[in-house]
Amino acid sequence: MNIRNLALAAACLLSLTAAAQAACVIHYNRTACPGKEAESYSKCSGTKECDKEDTSATSVAACEQVVAAACANTRLTITKSKVITGKFNGKALRGGSNFCASNRPDFNQCAK
User: Fold this and answer.
1) Distance CA 15, CA 83 (A)
2) Torsion, CA 61, CA 63, CA 68, CA 70, rounded to 10
3) Comparing C-alpha atoms, which of 23, 34, 5, 37 is closest to residue 86?
4) Contact 85/79 with Cβ under 8 angstroms?
5) Which of 13, 21, 46, 83 lies in disulfide reach of 29, CB 3.0 to 4.6 Å?
6) Burial of 4 (0-12, 13-18, 19+ CB in 10 A)
7) What's the half-sphere exposure (Cβ side, CA atoms, 13 Å) at 9?
């Protein structure tokens, strides 16, 4: 392999690494209503917690908006609450704290 090919390979590897790091990752941790675990956790392939990448957010501010929007709970009798945290480029947003207030009106509505 000559120097030119080696330099090209290194440049490609660096650009792939940079692209992989430029990501907004949302961490979901759901609490299901009693007896609704399978349905509540279905959005995380059947597990209570998972990470999902959002490629539309290209800045910290945009990622924070996406993460905050993930708090919304439309399945009131299925999901009791969520803890949502996020990372942008591998760094925790808001110090890794939960973006969802525990007193949201769309949380703790299982009995309805």
Assistant:
1) 33
2) 160
3) 23
4) no
5) 83
6) exposed
7) 6
pLDDT digits (tens, 9 = 90+) for 3-39: 554 444 554 444 444 445 569 999 999 999 999 999 9
Tokens of 85: 């945290």
Q: What is the Rg, in whole angstroms, of the alpha carbon atoms belonging to the chain?
A: 19
Tell me how crowded residue 8 is: count the other CB atoms within 10 A of its CB.
12
Two tokens at 17?
């690494």
**φ, ψ for residue 23, nearest 5 deg:** -140, 150
The per-residue pLDDT for range 52-76, each reduced to its tens digit, is 999 999 999 999 999 999 999 999 9
Q: Once rounded to an integer, what is the mean pLDDT over residues 78-86?
A: 98
